[in-house]
Design brief:
This protein is α+β, with helices and mostly antiparallel strands. The chain has four helices and five strands; from the N terminus they run βααβββαβα.
């Protein structure tokens, strides 16, 4: 398995994985919009996307991170916004390898760390994240506002 930075040449395969990720979170499938969204992120350098590629050069997973900043720490902080592994590839270490690559990005960019959120019903993620060193924050409230 090869973990590498995604390029615009990966869009076709990556958009299929991204669409499956969105469907997992109960969104309507929309490959065309997935292609447009991911193309913008890559072309505008607005996120870091790493892909897991098997021996046959097929993409089997991805992680997408967005840069944010911690004012109190006065450093970059990465938001691990999206992590998805094809259902047939789960329990093979793909998710761990993608998170490990994200950790390398954090160290190389001299950031203070990584944050993420996931649904309480995401059993797989809620088992994976502590296994890879993430700690559940039980002290702070999470709020959101939508337009």
């Amino acid at each position: 398995m090869n973990i590498r930075k995604a390029t615009i040449e990966d869009i076709e395969q990556l958009s299929v994985l991204f669409d499956a990720y969105r469907v997992f979170y109960e969104k309507t499938s929309d490959i065309e919009q997935a292609i447009a969204f991911l193309s913008e992120r890559i072309n505008n350098h607005e996120s870091e996307i790493y892909v897991a590629e098997n021996e046959e050069k097929k993409l089997v997973g991805f992680v997408q991170l967005y840069p944010i900043f911690s004012s109190t720490r006065m450093k970059r902080l990465w938001l691990l916004n999206d992590l998805f592994v094809d259902g047939h590839q789960r329990s093979k270490g793909v998710g761990i390898a993608l998170i490990d690559k994200a950790k390398v990005l954090c160290k190389e960019s001299d950031s203070c760390g990584m944050i993420l959120e996931t649904a309480k019903t995401n059993i797989i993620g809620n088992q994976l994240y502590p296994k890879t060193g993430f700690e559940l924050d039980e002290e702070h409230n999470y709020y959101s506002w939508s337009v």
